[in-house]
Amino acid sequence: HNYPHTKENDLIGFVNVIVPDEKDRLWIGSDAGLFCYANNEIIKISETSSSPQGVNDILFENDGGVWLATENGPSRVKIDDLDLTGSKKLQLSDYVLDQWPFKQEVIDTRRVIQIRKATDGTVYIAQFLNLYRFSDNKLDLIHQIEDPRDKILSVFPISKTKVFYNSVETEIHQIDNGLHTNIKHKTLYQPGVTVNREGIWHLGTFGLYYFHPEKAVASQF
């Protein structure tokens, strides 16, 4: 089935992300806002307004919090505040992180494309060219990309001090205790390497890697 509109005839638009929750509902982020698919119906959760409503990423937390990477910045709401009947809609711009410094800037400066969380609770917030860390209620810019063609595509957080990201031109990068390293393909790909943990299937510019963050290598390519 194709769903161009919601039950209430709201346009869904271009879909950026779909994330299932523990109750088998599908949460949909599109350029038109936040939606939920449940009971064979799609309901718009966010309110339509003159400000950009796009949602680029969705991250559920164990405490009932929901992080949203939006066109206006990183937002956090509570799952209990989301009305699945469609009668009470949220203005997502009202939930942008207080520490986000770009609320009054142009859309290209406000936009967030991805939010990921490490096992120690550290949240990483990515724009196309900037990577931020949110920990202990403090937001820090930890890395900037100089080449506008080399945009961030994905983020793999390990801890407060260690994170990996993938970019368009130069692929996998590591930031460890503030030290940035671009892991080149000839170093990254080590077939048959022995690891203690399962890896992550990672789609890079050169191909598909089975990536092991604890060793910063890929055992399959």
Give an overview in words.
It is a single chain. Helices cover 4% and strands 43% of the residues. The protein is built from two helices and 18 strands. The strands form five sheets. It has a four-stranded antiparallel sheet, with no helix packed on it. Strands 8-9-10-11 form a four-stranded antiparallel sheet, with no helix packed on it. A hairpin with a 5-residue loop joins strand 8 and strand 9. The longest helix is centred in the middle third of the chain and has 4 residues. The radius of gyration is 18 Å and the shape is globular. The model has no long low-confidence stretch (mean pLDDT 91).
| Strands in their spatial order, largest beta sheet | 1-2-3-4
**Percentage of residues in helical conformation:** under 10%
Main sheet properties: 4 strands, antiparallel
Integer-rounded radius of gyration: 18 Å
β content, as a range?
Answer: 35-45%
Low-confidence stretches: none
Mean pLDDT: 91
Quickly count the helices: 2
Total beta strands: 18
The N- to C-terminal Cα distance equals 34 Å
Categorize the overall geometry.
globular
Strand/helix succession: EEEEEEEHEEEEEEEEHEEE
Briefly note the structural class of the backbone: mainly beta
Q: Topology of this protein?
A:
Elements: E1 15-20, E2 26-30, E3 33-38, E4 41-44, E5 55-60, E6 65-70, E7 73-78, H1 107-110, E8 114-117, E9 123-126, E10 130-135, E11 138-144, E12 152-157, E13 162-167, E14 171-176, E15 179-182, H2 185-188, E16 200-203, E17 208-212, E18 217-220
Antiparallel strand pairs: 1-2, 2-3, 3-4, 5-6, 6-7, 8-9, 9-10, 10-11, 12-13, 13-14, 14-15, 16-17, 17-18
